[in-house]
Amino acid sequence: MEEIWLIIKYLFLGIFQGFTEPIPISSSGHLVIVQELLGLDLKGLTFEVLVNFGSLVAVLIIYRDDLIRLIKNGIGFVMTKDSRQKDDFDFILYLIIGTVPAGVLGVLLGDAIESISGVQTVGVTLIITGIALWLIRNLKGRKGDGQMTWKDALIVGIGQAVALIPGISRSGATIVAAMFLGMKQETALRFSFLLFIPVSLGTMLLSIEEVIADAGGSTGTWIAYVLAFAGSVVASYYSLRWFMNIMERGNLKYFAFYCFIVGGLVVLFL
Asked: Cα separation of 184 and 163, whole Å?
């Protein structure tokens, strides 16, 4: 009976994390809150790494056409120097540049960040996320993929690095940074989620032994991890599709309201 309850809780957490990962309300922060409410103690970050990898699978499915085009034109530009393929080649370089800050900060300060991952920290950082979303609620940028610069990529990458702190939304931080830099909503959204790919993949590769070790305690734990992963994939897919429609309508203010309310409740009552 205990194993069944464990499986149910892990499945719920996988679906919950998957739903909150694409939208700008901080999946890591909400995972901390839900663990507090359910009395769960997920040691380390291996479970979070696993369900984040589920979100990565959903991102790969949704942006598969963009990825195929980028790879094809990137290689094509290297081989032929065709000017029509240069924008996609540059976009790949910008993704590499944007990945560096989070990679460096994660390696240098990963343990320190994990040590401050308390529920009160999450409450405060959710309010900060809400303020940032409120500030960009009416911005309409003009920069498309071809107008980005390496400085834009670096600044957005710094936003992603800051979002390693639980409660600071990764998608929120990168989209806020991109839109402050004058990017169109479509470009900001695409760059944000393509930037998620190398960070999530790298984190999973570095943590895969720990994930396997943590899941190997019993058959029930393995089942719980697999179902949590599957739930994260499905929930992330539909959540990202929903968020893309919201971005088109420019309704980010509702996420700001949500962050204010939840952050305030956490600070006051947890």
From this structure: 21
